[in-house]
């Protein structure tokens, strides 16, 4: 008997949850008031709900099918798993997307799929979903398609005309890891796909000679995901891989997904609690690299094992290891150095730069900007404040360590 | 001087009063702002001021934009904060750049709170479908939402740009907005909860329960972004307590389950002997 739509939705959303991305930001601005259709994108993404795992639910994130001919050890949908299988038709995915959208549950669709028959067969069905949403239903909401490894260039190109974002997962931070755990996937091919897509995106950005208009092609760029903690790769290697992806392929985002136990898991992988704190530190380091002017080497050179400190955020850890760069005078220092003060975010730094043109800033000024004085006082000079010998204290690090949890009686 | 506000969140109303007060040279601490709705029938309130002059005002760029947001704040004190800023701007032209000034900080905090509420409205409004209306092809939807601030007016345009091909109403205790394919109508009149039911909510709840990964419980993170005050109007929210309570057991059961042998098709695909 055919499974009900609800039952299949349960299976195919359960199968999709190991993909971390749910972003709906960074695409072109669109709305329906002129086209008379449905949907808009206004720059910043919107999280329409949060699951108890703390993750934002912005998109309807589902698989077209969880049947798969690949046998990737870390994946819930691998061919050797006994997980219950199901499949949506193209029209069912479209219907769910539109009905969910109309009720304002979602910003759009993130469609991925197990690979059935062949890469091209699967990719073609996914492209049909996107094409029909745009052309038949006049849908202007967000669409993210996961491209299928080894799908033909022509299909990827068509996908890019309708999708806001395309992604292909590099899965594990090293080639050896991919080869060991995903025997049917080939790191070189994955990189080639990313490279080809980057070229096409660059090409579309060039205004054409005749109309001076830019073609809309994957306006929110491409992203990827790495699983963290399934193999022994250290953080320095992981972040090095990210830096190469950002630099070489101009990815918009690299997502880190703490390896999480899955039902009917492979015996080759550890049954561990997902390393959530490690994942969090990697995201912080990724942020420092992209928005705070840090090099990966600076962030990771603090420890011999190439791992980030789990107890301190990477910016604070860097500051403690580089005390000679402090204190920073908030009334004189340049933007680059202000961004390196633990406790200052980008917004705080911008406020400081604006305000200090008109007055000399004191600690009270920072307090009004909701800066934690406790965190910054050792690292800055302000009008009426110098850190004394705080920076020379050997227990400075201890002052920032999380308080030991109180033991409870049994 | 008592000023009575008729339409909360209406920037023009505040601006007209503020212009009069300023040209009459009335100091900010001499003005008391009152809400007509809160006064009820007790009309001792307003001072019927007859101002003659209405000088044109110039304000720095950014002030109007900021004031349009701040005036939506549910705390009536917002009106006074804005007037004090306006007053001080007459002599301190750079005031808005002094991002650490207490009045500027207060206005920014109020603007931030209003902005956040507006963002949460875009996120947490849930439309329910109503029966078709005879003679209209457009589908009919209605949502009930409870904002903290007077934001319906400034947020309605977002819904119009997004849900253009359907008729909709968003009703709130602080006014309502509606779209009929031609015109966007905003009313300040408080509405009542229509308590509607929509069958598609069941599919959404199915999705919400299954996209959750029980091995990654982070309840605090969820509640920071989706505070409990919004839960009562979210069809998925009453699933949350059970999802949290059952998470640990589900992970334990997953780990305890003995390894299985692969299904037949695995062997045929990879041409290996089972």
TrEMBL record, chain A:
Cofactor section: [4Fe-4S] cluster
Keyword Iron annotated: yes
Keywords of the record: Iron, Iron-sulfur, Metal-binding, S-adenosyl-L-methionine
A GO MF label: iron-sulfur cluster binding
Every Radical SAM core domain range: 63-187
Region (Disordered): 22-41
Transmembrane spans: none
InterPro entries tied to this protein: Aldolase_TIM, DNA_rSAM_put, Endo/Exo/Phosphatase_dom_1, rSAM, rSAM_sf, RuvA_2-like
Entry annotated with the keyword Transferase: no
NCBIfam families referenced in this protein's UniProt entry, alphabetically: rSAM_link_UDG
Descriptive protein name: DNA modification/repair radical SAM protein
Organism per entry: Asticcacaulis endophyticus
Automatic annotation (TrEMBL), chain B:
Domain DUF4130: residue ranges: 81-236
Superkingdom of source: Bacteria
Pfam family, any one: DUF4130
Protein name in UniProt: DUF4130 domain-containing protein
Taxonomic source organism: Asticcacaulis endophyticus
Lineage: Bacteria, Pseudomonadati, Pseudomonadota, Alphaproteobacteria, Caulobacterales
């Amino acid at each position: 008997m055919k499974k009900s739509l609800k039952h299949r939705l349960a299976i195919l959303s359960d199968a999709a949850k190991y993909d971390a991305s749910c972003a709906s930001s960074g695409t072109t601005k669109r709305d329906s008031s002129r086209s008379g259709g449905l949907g808009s994108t206004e720059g910043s993404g919107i999280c329409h709900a949060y699951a108890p795992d703390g993750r934002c639910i912005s998109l309807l994130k589902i698989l077209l099918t969880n049947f798969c001919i690949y046998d990737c050890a870390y994946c819930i949908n691998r061919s050797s798993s006994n997980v219950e299988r199901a499949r949506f038709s193209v029209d069912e995915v479209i219907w769910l997307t539109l009905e969910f959208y109309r009720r304002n549950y979602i910003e759009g669709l993130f469609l991925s799929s197990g690979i059935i028959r062949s890469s091209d067969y699967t990719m073609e069905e996914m492209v049909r979903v996107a094409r029909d949403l745009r052309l038949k239903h006049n849908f202007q909401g967000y669409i993210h398609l996961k491209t299928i490894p080894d799908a033909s260039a022509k299909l990827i190109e068509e996908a890019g005309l309708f999708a806001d974002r395309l992604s292909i997962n590099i899965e594990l931070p090293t080639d050896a890891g991919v080869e060991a755990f995903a025997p049917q996937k080939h790191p070189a091919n994955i990189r080639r796909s990313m490279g080809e897509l980057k070229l096409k995106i660059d090409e579309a950005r060039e205004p054409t000679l005749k109309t001076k208009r830019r073609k809309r092609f994957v306006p929110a760029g491409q992203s990827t995901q790495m699983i963290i903690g399934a193999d022994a790769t250290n953080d320095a290697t992981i972040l090095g891989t990210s830096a190469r992806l950002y630099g070489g392929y101009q990815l918009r985002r690299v997502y880190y997904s703490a390896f999480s136990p899955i039902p009917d898991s492979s015996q080759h992988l550890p049954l561990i609690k997902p390393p959530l704190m490690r994942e969090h530190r990697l995201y912080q380091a990724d942020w420092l690299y992209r928005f705070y002017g840090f090099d990966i080497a600076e962030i990771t050179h603090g420890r011999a094992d190439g791992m980030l400190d789990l107890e301190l955020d990477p910016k604070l850890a860097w500051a403690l290891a580089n005390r000679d760069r402090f204190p920073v005078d908030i009334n004189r220092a340049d933007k680059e150095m202000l961004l390196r003060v633990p406790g200052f975010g980008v917004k705080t730094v911008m406020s400081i730069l604006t305000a200090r043109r008109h007055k000399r800033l004191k600690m009270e000024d920072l307090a009004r900007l909701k800066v934690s004085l406790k965190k910054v006082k050792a690292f800055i000079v302000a009008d009426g404040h110098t850190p004394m010998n705080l920076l020379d204290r050997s227990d400075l690090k201890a002052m920032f360590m999380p308080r030991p949890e109180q033991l409870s009686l049994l | 001087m008592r000023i009575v506000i008729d339409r909360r969140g209406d920037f023009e109303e505040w601006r007209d009063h503020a212009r009069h007060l300023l040209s009459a040279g009335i100091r900010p601490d001499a003005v008391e702002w009152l809400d007509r709705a809160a006064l009820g029938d007790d009309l001792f309130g307003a001072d019927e001021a007859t101002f003659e002059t209405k000088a044109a005002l110039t304000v720095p760029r950014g002030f109007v934009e900021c004031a349009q947001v701040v005036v939506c704040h549910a705390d009536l004190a917002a009106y006074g904060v804005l007037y004090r800023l306006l007053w001080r701007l007459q002599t301190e032209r750079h005031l808005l750049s002094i991002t650490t000034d207490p009045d500027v900080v207060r206005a920014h905090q109020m603007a931030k709170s209003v902005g956040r509420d507006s963002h949460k409205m875009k996120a947490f409004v849930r439309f329910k479908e109503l029966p078709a209306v005879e003679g209209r092809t457009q589908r009919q939807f209605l949502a009930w939402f409870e904002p903290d601030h007077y934001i319906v007016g400034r947020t309605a345009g977002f819904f119009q740009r997004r849900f253009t091909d359907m008729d909709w109403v968003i009703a709130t205790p602080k006014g309502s907005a509606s779209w009929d394919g031609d015109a966007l109508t905003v009313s300040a009149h408080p509405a009542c909860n229509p308590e509607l039911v929509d069958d598609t909510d069941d599919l959404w709840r199915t999705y919400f329960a299954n996209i959750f990964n029980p091995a990654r419980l982070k309840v605090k993170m969820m509640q920071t972004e989706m505070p409990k005050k919004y839960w009562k109007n979210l069809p998925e929210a009453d699933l949350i307590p059970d999802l949290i309570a059952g998470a640990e057991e589900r992970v334990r059961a997953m780990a305890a389950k003995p390894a299985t042998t692969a299904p037949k098709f695995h062997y045929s695909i990879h041409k290996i002997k089972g």
